[in-house]
Amino acid sequence: MNEIMSKASRLPGRLSYFCTMSFDNQLFHLIDEALKEDIGDGDHSTSSCIPADAKGKAVLKIKQKGTLAGMEVAKKIFEYKDPGSVFISYKNDGDQMIFGEKAFEVDASVHAILQCERLTLNCMQRMSGIATLTKEYTDKLKGFKTRLLDTRKTTPNFRLLEKEAVRIGGGINHRFGLFDMIMLKDNHIDYAGGIEKAIDMAYQYVKFKKPGLKIEVETRSIEDVKKVIAMGKGKVFRIMLDNFTPVQIAEAVLLIREDFETEASGGITLDNIQEYAKTGVDYVSVGALIHQARSLDLSLKAVLTS
Q: Is the pTM of this model over 0.90?
C-alpha cells in the first residue's frame, strides 16, 4: 500500500487511503463520478453559447467568515478537467477567512470552469463548514491532553472529503471504514454473546487473518470497563466509554490508567466538551463535526478582461 500513497496522502493526520486506493486516486474517482452525474450527455448550457476553445478566468469569492477548506481539492478538480489550467492560490487550507476575500483564481478553458463550478463550490462550501465547526471544538480543547476524533457518521460517497475537512479544522480522523480497525460496538458484543467472547474471537481473527489490525471495544458501564481491563490487555488497544457522564469517565480513566487508550463518545457538545476533557480522557469523538456542520457561502465568478 505504501508504494501507491501520494505525497499529499502522507500529510500529518490525513487518512492515507480508501481501502487500497491512494487519497488522490479516490479523489479522482469522486470527481469523475460527480462530473458524470452533473454533465450527463453534455453541458448544453455552455455548449450552446460558448466556443469549445474559449479561455477564461474565474475567481473564488469568500462571502462568509470561517475556516477555509478544499483549496487543494479545488486545484485538483480543475487540473483533472483541464490539465493546462493555471491555479493561483491566495489562501491555504485551514486559513481563517472573512467576507470579501479571494481564495483563488483559475485560468482555464471556459467549458472546464463552468462544468467544474458547482462541484468545486459544493465541495468547498461543505468542507469549509465542517472545518469551521471542527475548529470551534478543537479551540475548546486547548490546554487539555484530550484530542478530537471524527466518526463514520458521514455522507455516503463523500466521506473522503468530510474527513479531510475535519483534519484541516484540527481534528483527527478515526477509522475510515469497517476495514481499517476492529471496533466491537454494542451490537457486535450482544450478537457475540458478551464482551469477553467478542474480544477473544476478534483477537483470534486478528492473530490468524489480519495481523496488525487494532481492536477497540465499546463499553456501556463501569462493569464493562472492568471486564475489558481484566482480560483485554495485549488484545485491545482502546476502550470507548459510550454515553458515560464526565464523572463516570473520570472513574473509568482512573481504573484504566495507562493500560489502554481511552475515548469518550456520545452526548459531547461545544457546551460540555471541556468537562469531558477535564477527566483526562485521551480522545473524544463527535459525530456532529460532520452531520451538524453548515455549509459556508462561497461563489465562483467570471473575471472579464478588456
A: yes
